[in-house]
Amino acid sequence: MGGLYAALHAGHMVGDYWAQTDRCAQAKGKPGKDGRRACATHVATLTATQAAFISLAAAATGERLPARRVAAGLAVNAISHYAIDRRDHGVMPHLCRALRRYGKEDFARLGAPGLASGAAYLDQAWHIAWCAISAAIIAGKG
Hints:
Structural class: mainly alpha
Pfam families: DUF3307 (PF11750)
Number of domains: 1
Order of helices and strands: HHHHHHH
Protein name: DUF3307 domain-containing protein
Distance between the termini: 15 Å
Largest sheet: none
InterPro entries: Phage_phiKZ_Orf197
């Protein structure tokens, strides 16, 4: 499972920063159809990047991965990525409000707007957690 997690994490980092276009990065959190489309495009590119990393890792190790499990793990990861990347129109504000007593609303606003904001760190923590969950789905038995 460690190798799967490493491949998903590496694919996430490349997909989230190198493969994502500036247009998608700027628009994915906007309201309406344009924001939804930009976020879906970003998630499709990210998922393709993660799939490539999983394929390369499996080829390098000779591990045979069940296609259904890979598809399920990547689908879970994609849905979770879209949900948080919609920013104010996704789950982030709801989670921060629910965790208000722990200071998450204030933390999310630190350094905003910007790449080194509290919201950006919460976003990345969410993504990495879901990479681990997705790796467990792919590595599971059955």
